[in-house]
Amino acid sequence: MATSQNIIDLQNISFHYGDGYVLEDITFSIPSGAFVGLVGPNGSGKSTLIKIIFGLLKPQKGQVNIFGKKMNKFHEWSKIGYVSQKANSFNSGFPASVFEVVSMGLASKLGLFKFMKATHRKAVMEALKQVGMGDYASSNIGELSGGQQQRVFIARALVSKPEILILDEPTVGVDANSTSDFYELLGKLNQENGITLLLVTHDIGTITDKVTHVACLNKTLHFHGKTNEFEQFNDRELSGFYGHHVHVLSHDHDHGGI
Q: Are the CB atoms for 171 and 201 separated by under 8 Å?
């Protein structure tokens, strides 16, 4: 892949907190338009990798390029949306409407003490409609299910119209049915809306019928390529990547030629 087509480019990244390396010699890229699933066991370095992408941690070795610019030259952070593990820890008593929560995603554009204009209100409603939550704009965020809350948090990330959306274990605390619907939504955002996605997850089997690329991380990058190539690995090979037994359920896939 040509570097100019990649939104995220990590070249030979290594990072350590103390004596031992958490990440070692990671070369990893996210091409524009891709839906990348980043998988790996607990303690594999996934959260550290995300912090490096956001510039919160500086690697001891290697180079980070965002939208073709070196990290210290990149300042257009509104191009990157972020959704964290909210559903399992969100305060159900938080006194805010769905509309107000999504409007928080415009804070960088509105600035302090500035009133929303009609264009901003329209953007909030469009983001809610994108995630199927347009009818809940006036509802209290705390009254929604975990799956509905996560859709709202995606809308909050989408309202500033980012080019890439990074989701860090977004289905933790969300029931199985809502999780399935959630992945359907992500697939739609990628395929129909053209949003580049990076999904950090433990759920290997479920994501493979949605993502276009898979990165399997456990201190080093054991695999980084297209989904149909990842699916050729058997349970024994995947267990070797993970350091413990892994069983992947089979799926009937239609990757649309990917």
A: yes
